[in-house]
Amino acid sequence: MHLLCDRGHPEAMCSQLGVLQLACAALEALDHNGNHHRDKMFATEKVLVNSVGGNSPSPIKLLTEMISREQTDSDENLDMKMNIADVICLAIHLYCLFGKGCSSGISEDMRFQGALEDLALREHVQLMRQLGLEGSVTFDTVRKWAVEIMTRLRSLAMMRHEMKQFKSLHKTGATGAVYHPIMIQLLEAMFSPHRPDLTDLQYHAEGLTSRLKATFSLFMSSALPRPASNDCIIIFVVGGITSAEVRQIRETVAKHNANDKQVLIGSTSLLTPLDSVLNFCNRHL
Asked: SS in 3 state form for the chain?
């Protein structure tokens, strides 16, 4: 770019300003101080998910042990250690993924709750306020807060209990459990050439003709219309959607050669991992 200016061609640089801006943004992202911490979190998540099955300890037991080791390890860089928001984020992921199989019983849940309390007493007051702690940071207020967090985690474990088709968010792989997002499961079922029944989706008929078809389908073998039968498919996620889920939708649509369909993605907000944790800790049950 400097050469272009020196040679008397500033208009050539102006035409490439967009590329220059993207290059600068990429360099800043690669040089960000949080990259090492994020890589550690990805590695931790992989270890916890792969622990399911075999003779390995339960994921929540492993997470509790990791917290204890970090708190006693004085040599590790403070910026690399998990803070309480990181721990809750991993716990939310594990309870959503494995349900009741996340821990082997109430005793492991209680040990994890104790680890949460120890972390909370060491955390900055401002972060604890963001995570829903009311009042001053004392043993009693932290204990009450931790009990509420565990109640919400257990409710996550039961949230797909009544589902039939999308009950599980993982499948068995060569190295253990593999995360199988519900967004991918839903789209694969919608676009599958085998056209499986979408038992967890409800069809709302519009107009007299559609209502008659829906009514007669209860007594006859006629199939209900499928979402993929439409030229335009709207996927709206209430509560927020992550950038990873948006990418999953685009990749799954391309994988099934459904580019002839117009897929519109909408949500109430675009979530970051911290947003998910804050919403979880502060929502009213």
From this structure: CHHHHHCCCHHHHHCCHHHHHHHHHHHHHHCCCCHHHHHHHHHHHHHHHHCCCCCCCCHHHHHHHHHHHHHHCCCCCHHHCCCHHHHHHHHHHHHHHHHHHHCCCHHHHHHHHHHHHHHHHHCCHHHHHHCCCCCCCCHHHHHHHHHHHHHHHHHHHCCCCCCCCCCCCEEEECCEEEECCHHHHHHHHHHCCCCCCCCCCCCCCCHHHHHHHHHHCCCCCCCCCCHHHCCEEEEEECCCEEHHHHHHHHHHHHHCCCCCCEEEEEECCEECHHHHHHHHHHCCC
Q: pTM score, two decimals?
A: 0.76
pLDDT, tens digit (0-9, with 9 covering 90-100), for 108-123: 999 999 999 998 888 8
The model's pLDDT over 212-263, given as tens digits with 9 standing for 90+, comes to 555 555 555 555 667 877 888 888 999 899 998 999 999 988 888 877 888 8
Alpha carbons 117 and 140: distance in angstroms, whole number: 10
Q: At 228, phi and psi to the nearest 5?
A: -70, -10
